Amino acid sequence: MGDRERWLTVLGRYLRRRWKTGALLLACAFIFALIFSLYDLETEAVLYAGVLCLLLLFFVLAADFVRCLGRHRRYEEVFRNLPLLPDGLPPAGTVDEADLQELFAELGRRMEAALTEWENRRQESMDYYTTWVHQIKTPISVMRMTLAGEDTEEHRELSAELFRIEQYVEMVLSYLRLDSDSSDYVFQEYDLDSIIRQAVHKYAPLFVRKKLKLSWEPSGIRVLTDEKWLLFILEQILSNSIKYTPEGTITIAVTREKVLKISDTGIGIAPEDLPRIFEKGFTGYNGRADKKSTGLGLYLCKKASGRLSHEISVQSKPGEGTTISVDLSTEKLQTE
Q1: What is the pTM of this model?
Q2: What is the mean pLDDT of residues 97-118?
Q3: 187-327, which class in CATH?
Q4: Residues 6+ apart with CB under 8 A from 98
Q5: Of the residues 25, 40, 158, 220, which has the fewest C-beta atoms closer than 10 A?
Q6: Residue 286 contacts residue 293 (beta carbons within 8 Å)
């Protein structure tokens, strides 16, 4: 809105607010002129007195409008800097305004108290779940060492399920970190092949178990990112690809433009589900059929990608497979 439109808007509001006062003064001027006319005074004298009353009314209202316009601009400045409230408000000009400012001050105090209480509860929850995640890793490690003692079909089944538990535990910790305001990021140039190799190594047992083929050629490309979080994104994408690919190949490729593409020959994604796959808790047709999907993996990928300033997108056709792309060509990040 331009200055002229804003000025006219304020003027309209002012006139709607002051119309009773103006009408009263006009009525007084009319009564004054009427009484003068009843005493057979000259018309010029009556008109002269009436014009003086109207001029006085105009100047009084004009001065009051200028004052109101200045206060309006002061309020606009305060609203652009809301943390200044309520101390930054201009002094109250009327009893009603003073009451409203007192009400705003009380609401501000209550909101601050509620926000402080919410922050304390949130921090307590985060501390609890973070401690739980680290504590649960100990029995998981013990179970993994126990299962590694024998190579039987039953032990392999249990190892696969234990691996799923580890994934969910890591997902909880990542969810807490992404939802916090902590600056848990270290941006610098990393060897992309090294990060991909870590993710592939972690999921190698699942590739073998499902007899899936991996197609990947090292690219020798370095990217500006955070290693831990990019690795988390790759692991979540690989996990989904393996989960929804009964047989065939998973391909990892990097373009010259530093776009990482992970493709599979799996069951694909329904067209109506594609716009919502990055939504929190959305599982889609495949997730409902699988009965084990949490709807958090791709949501966390999207959120982590946003924190890293990487763009993530997906292309898929049912029955033909899915390709998830992560654009790593960000130039606006600065290394430490």
Answers
A1: 0.63
A2: 80
A3: alpha beta
A4: 92
A5: 40
A6: yes
